[in-house]
Amino acid sequence: MEQPKINFVDIHYAQRGTSSNTDELGMREMQAKAYQYRDKRFLLIKAPPASGKSRALMFIALDKLVNQGIKKVVVAVPEKSIGRSFRNTDLKKYGFFDDWRLAPYYDLCSSTGNESDKAGRFCEFMRKETKSKVLVCAHATLRNAMKELNDEDWNDCLLAIDEFHHTSADANSGLGDTVRRVMNNSTGHIVAMTGSYFRGDGIPVLRTEDEARFYPVSYNYYQQLNGYKYLKNLVLGYHFYKGVYLDHIGEVLDTHRKTIIHIPSINSRASTARGKYQEVEDIMKLIGTVVERDYNHGGGIYTLETKDGRRVKLADLVDDDPKTRAGVYSYLNKMKKADDMDFIIALGTAKEGFDWEWCDTCLTIGVRGSLTEVVQIIGRCTRDSKGKDTARFINMIAMPDADQPDVKVAVNDFLKAITASLLMEQVMAPSWHFKTTKEPEEDSDDTVHTIVVEGLKPLSSAKTKQIVEEQLDDLKASILQEDLVVKAISGSTTAENITQHLIPKVIREKYPDLTEGEVEEVRQRVLLDTIIKGNDIMDDKGNPIDITETYENEEERGSEGNRMMKLANRFINIDKLSINLIDTINPFQRAYEVLSKTVDAPTLKVIQDTIAEQKFDMSIDTAIMLFKGPLKEWVAAHDGAMPSLNSSDPKVKELAVAYQMIYNLKIRKMKGLEYEPENND
Length: 681
Known about the structure:
The protein is α/β, with parallel strands linked by helices. Helix content is 36%, strand content 15%. The strands form three sheets. The chain has a ten-stranded mixed beta sheet with strand order 9-10-11-12-8-13-14-7-18-17, with helices on both faces.
């Protein structure tokens, strides 16, 4: 019998369009998913940028106003520019029962006046009968108003908090205290929205007992990116310079592209002695000559004429004069078309939640110490928009005190850290479901993979199922934030103590209403998920992994460029990820530029599959042996069908793993992604 040929080159990207298509109520996929749980008093929506969280809130809030007895809605955003996402929106013409309306008087993100005036208007809205039912404000206004409000003022009101990770369980957090007051001392409802639920300071977003009362709705990047219509590619670039960045920014600044330029913090090594205002002026001179300044918007909107005679618009978000900043935000909030803006120069703003859909390039100067910040900045240029097929992120960094081959390795590690971290946060990652053979079969989803584990305790309650299906990543984050666990992982105790004592302790504290049997069910899922998805706590032999910093003080960090090289290996275990993401290296006389390969859907799929290999304990030699013999025999005996990774038969699963490893290796080589070490590596 002739053995069937196994096809290595059949790559498909399931661009179903479901995330952008709307249903009969005018809702996109994520919005419809969140709307199912509109009757929950406390709702936590976790979804990526551009997935439609703002409109999802509108649908939910309007239903609460009309059908659930809620009388008023307050929407709080981290910075005023984000408030434009909640301006008047027509919903009825797309099938919903009402439109979203915001009176200008209660749009505290667009209105002028100091914080005291806005806090007073906030209190007026809460305490008086008003025709308007919606108020939008900044987090700071909410905190100031809460100093004057009583807890019972929130009775029958909805508080919606955008970028919810700004909340903290710390006793000194004004936003966290507001959440607790509304939850515990009123009949108010809360809708929390975020695309990044983890904070960088090690303090939980919510206290354990409070978080358990929220119903979570998660929507991942895999679902979102499948729905993009226009944006296909992402290019990541690192431009190393010697001296002052202003002398080199012209080498990477393309005046034909819609660009957000983030200049370095005044306290960073990349900052110059000229000061932030002079840096803005120097960048503007590189773009063109100022021919007009819009004083109707505070003087922060400029029209420049480029050297080739084009007229472009630039917004200055570095100038922190209150009138200028308010005028710029007012202009940005009113933008309707691509020609309304070409460049935005910012310092600490225009990052998370900032919506400029036509932006296709982010040029960032200086090393960013947080991967979350890098990903947030990249998200500013990756929104889907007509005419934009490629987005670019360029990071200008001072040249490290290292040989160029070392820089190449560090950059490749950093590119892997960015793309892989997105995948690990379910940007394009599959969801894994662990079940025991006693659990009934359920309808399968092509984005969910099932692993049958012998001896695994079945999930016995709705609560444990919700934790495992919706909150497992958050639980793992809580475990890693626990002081005793961090100390244990650093090597002061055994793996058994971590798995048998410390992890159950965190689970009990986070979910105090669970029985001991339920705690054990969740503990097993945490350990399985950890081993399968990336060894966050221990390696596959059960040994603790050191996740402490690679340096302890500022002096040890060295130059900013050297800091970038150390950051490259902080984020995830990328040493095992055999991927080469570097496309071109351009050595300049005074600079050094490294560009990534085009990160399109097929490339992300290859990276995803390569990361998935790490969950299997199989050498490439074993995979080749199985591929050449038992796999071909199995395929021939099953009429050309391929073995499944989800098979409950360990021998069949082993063959599927072998096939997947060989397939991934072949695809990586065809796409030029296979990492070829240098002779001296």
